[in-house]
Write the structure tokens for this entry.
Amino acid sequence: MWSDEDLAALVRMPSGDERKVRSGWIAEEGQSTGVGIAVAAALCVPGTPAECELEFVLVAPHARRQGIGRTLIHAVFAWASDMEAHEIWLEVRASNTRALRLYERCGFVVIGGRPGYYVDPSEDAVLMRCRIGDIPGDAPV
């Protein structure tokens, strides 16, 4: 599904701010076949904790419900912890109940919304946050 080149292109996307660091992870199946991908970004200002955002997690339809999304999110938690972040933020479409459940199981909580955030189709976003200290005990951080 996704190659190392696909991930590298996403991570290299210009951020417009040299203090913004982007990282990505691929979950592979068999001989280097990517079945999941996650990308996160951190704003790193000297003297302050990094501000981290989980930009997206994608898992191929045939590989869902096998723990791949959770594993990718835990990799992001470890990275954010290494970046000395105190929390991770994300936005998700309000209709994406599958993702909302996954994020909640991983320790994210709903803290608000963003009306009309998404286009094509227009939809509200749910704003979620996970404090690094609130990550469930089975998360490998």
